[in-house]
Amino acid sequence: MTVTLHDDNTIRLLGACPAEDGESLLQHLLANPTAEVDWRGCESAHAAVIQVLLVCGRAVQGPAAGPFLDRFIGPALARWKRQVPPFPVVPEMRKR
Question: For the domain 3-95, what is the CATH code?
């Protein structure tokens, strides 16, 4: 498994993360609202995983193991994090 809950505060991405890992990552993020993502062991990631990382707004521990992720996706995550509030915003979701 390439997406694992290391402890209550860290979700790890390891190796090559396929599209299915986008769902796993999302589930871990929703279940652990304060957890950070550690992608220092991530060599490559499907766009679905990158999209979840962009939207979640969580802190990402890096740099990523893969040079493409480190060079192009890491800076995008840093810029996006400044613009998007972290999710989940549970109280607002429950009001509807």
Answer: 3.30.750
